[in-house]
Design a protein that fits this description.
With 71 residues, the chain is mainly α. Helix content is 85%, strand content 0%. It has one domain. The longest helix is centred in the last third of the chain and has 24 residues.
Amino acid sequence: MSFEAWGIFALFWVVFVTTPGPNAVNCISNGMSRGFVRSLPGVAAILTQASLFLALSALGVTALLTASETA
């Protein structure tokens, strides 16, 4: 990989790592408007979704759906 490609990669990596994603913005917004305890269900939902996605990816379900003609 060329030095220019590495530079572009590093720039995009820094931008994506340092900016909050939609889940972080959702948690911050809910925490500030509703308080800590009332925002916990949203955090639990995000954790559940991420865990489910991780498990499905590990099981190869994504590859099966991609290879399926009807999906």
